[in-house]
Design goal:
mainly alpha
Amino acid sequence: MSITFAAWLAMLNNFSIEQAAFTGAEIGVLQSLREIPGFLAFTAVFILLVLAEQTFALVSLCVLSIGVAITGFFPSIYGLYATTVLMSIGFHYYETVNTSLSLQWFDKEETAVKLGQLMSIKSASSLVCYGLIWLSFSFLSTSYQFLYLFFGLTGLLLTLWLAFVMPKFTIAHSQHKKIILRKRYSLYYLLTFLAGARRQIFVVFAGFLMVEKFGYSVQQITLLYMINHVINFFLAPKIGAWIAKVGEKRALTLEYIGLVIVFVGYALVESADIAAVLYVIDHLFFAMAIALKTYFQKIADPKDIASNSAVSFSINHIAAVVIPASFGLIWLYDHSLVFYAGAAIALASLVASQFINLEHNKKQSVVA
């Protein structure tokens, strides 16, 4: 997943501007379309009626890889919209199942550490991808078409290897195969919704700010991504261990305070170097999202994990369907307003996180 999606993302802003003449409005629409499959992630519950989760993950990776492979051959507004939706279907179904299986396969005591290690592995594979892109554009004058095809086919071959070589893992608790919403998960649902909203502002507009306002080239954007992943490679496991030590409430509190500061910084920044620093810090906070997953694992009935992973993924993407397109129009008026809105969302998350009470949830779970 990492090596294919990293390639798609690293080249997206430059490819969309240089090859398809995108403005903030078009990139907003594209990102809204990209998030529709995420919004529909709850349908994964019904697919699990006929496919095992591990098999579903592999099928999703195939769809993701094919979508990335053909992206470069459709350098137009509607062509990029279409390939993005195809890629996104595979990506979002995979991420839904990935979250579910991670929470089922890992013990609660080790989940935060293991998720940090997984983020480190993802960063390592992304670094390989970004390094190849940087070398290709800097010294080989490689086309977007070739690189998208190369990374897409690489992902497809790796997925086929996984299908035939990796063992099938067992599931300790049989999962519900229907949509389940529980009142005691309400705070988790709210935090998930807000996380999805703020994530969109980072994914869609922070990178676009670098290219449109500060003129970053594809090589510079790729180097920025590489810096992010080098830091994540070393720090993500430590962040996971730190979350396990201090608890979810403290970790999320620190994350949201930091995000308020970062988004206000995006709104005011006039220096390309300072913008890059903000971008790196912003990306680092993504590692702390581990705390939201481990919080859910601790309050959830083990049989609810697959169903609620799909439902929460849809909740995470409610704002994602609306924000990119609507905020893309706001961007045309004043880009700083987009980032002030991000600061407000982070502030709302900070307030909500103060209601985390694992002891209370344990009692509710026993009653249920």
